Amino acid sequence: MDMNNIESIVQQVLAEMRSSGSMPSAGGASVGPIPAKSRVAMLTSTGHFDIQEYAIPEVGDDDVLVKVEGCGVCGTDAHEFKRDPFGLIPVVLGHEGTGTIVKMGKNVKKDSAGKDLHLGDKVVTCMIFKDNPDITMFDLNKQNVGGADVYGLLPDDDVHLNGWFADYLLVRGGSTIFNVSDLDLDSRILIEPCAVLIHAVERAKTTGILRFNSRVVVQGCGPIGLICIAILKTMGIQNIVAVDGEEKRLSFAKEMGAGNTVNFKDHKGIEALTEAVKNAFGGYLADFAFQCTGSPVAHSNIYKFIRNGGGLCELGFFINGGDATINPHFDICSKEITTVGSWVYTLRDYATTFDFLKSAKDIGLPMSKLITHRFPLEKINEALETNLAMEGLKIAIVINS
Ligand SMILES: [Zn+2]
């Protein structure tokens, strides 16, 4: 018996131990008894998922079968659920998912970051590249993912296990997959939305204005704004002011690292609001601002909070919220404001996100509190309705919850 054999046997045994005590199936690289069928939540018409069962397909030499543990509900899922703007119905949604490798093809050895992959490892997917070499390479961090396919936004086909709102997902060869066994379930569910903010902060850094001692205003304290504050905090930025209209969210912003908060409902008119932001910074305007709401009025307002020569990152408009009015003379030109937009993330940002989530945990930021609702798969319609009702922050499907 050579060393390679011993190593693979040891890894197999470890993987089996990790997979919560389930018995290995006879032969083949798989962990535990894999059922013949998997449940999926199929969106069959607007506003309605059906729980359906499909045979678990053959796992090819380059494929990975993942047993789903959980998946966040994204705003994109809510839009698709309500109106089918992407024309995907019938579709298995869910792209913020994570789970355990229970079977893998013989060619699968490493994840997209070069880390080893074993049975029993916890993984997330990022996107599926077809033939765009500019974005398939991990080191090219300039291009965002626009145009790539994502599990959870694929049209239904013979495989059916194409989204994370299911018991199993088949990750096909050529997809990006990351080994995140060192993160807990809540952190793994939060990876995708956090990657959006890692990207935004990386975009902000390109201005050269965002520094260790910067005064930073974050407008909007939904999940996006709150995660933004958490990332700034892990970077060591101490002087953060959060702006929102809800006290509950503002107090959460403080837990995430905001030193001060401003409730815009307490201040009538943009002059009074600007004065309140200034006071919150001890009499100074912000060096840098993150605009995390989808409100055109909020976009118009935020320029007033920024000092001459300051910077702005706009990332709130993931859907078209309409036109905003600004005064180019006062707001941009005479103040020499540097603005950047931010959209989705790169593969590099995805890997950075894993480190951020570990740092956030290390310094005690309450990231898990972002997940305010957990539903089992069979209650997926209720989960989406809860998201649409704008109750809570992050809604998640957790299998067996
Ligand atoms: Zn998402």
Textual characterization of the structure:
The protein has 401 residues and is of the alpha/beta class. 30% of the residues lie in helices and 24% in strands. It contains 12 helices and 16 strands. Helix 2 packs across helix 12 (380-388). It binds zinc ion.
Q: Quick one: overall form?
A: elongated
Fraction of residues in β-strands: 15-25%
> Termini distance?
44 Å
Described by strand count, sense and barrel closure, the largest sheet is: 7 strands, mixed
Bound molecules: zinc ion
Classify the secondary structure makeup into a structural class: alpha/beta
CATH architecture of the largest domain: Alpha-Beta Complex
Supply Rg: 22 Å
CATH class of the largest domain: Alpha Beta
Number of strands: 16
Helix segment count? Answer: 12
Mean pLDDT: 89
Number of domains: 2
| Poorly predicted spans | 13-28, 136-143
Helical content stands at 25-40%
The helix/strand series, from N terminus to C terminus, equals HEEEHEEEHEEHHEHEHEHEHEHEHEHE
Using the coordinates shown, work out and report the CATH topology of the largest domain.
Answer: Quinone Oxidoreductase, Chain A, domain 1
CATH homologous group name of the largest domain: Medium-chain alcohol dehydrogenases, catalytic domain
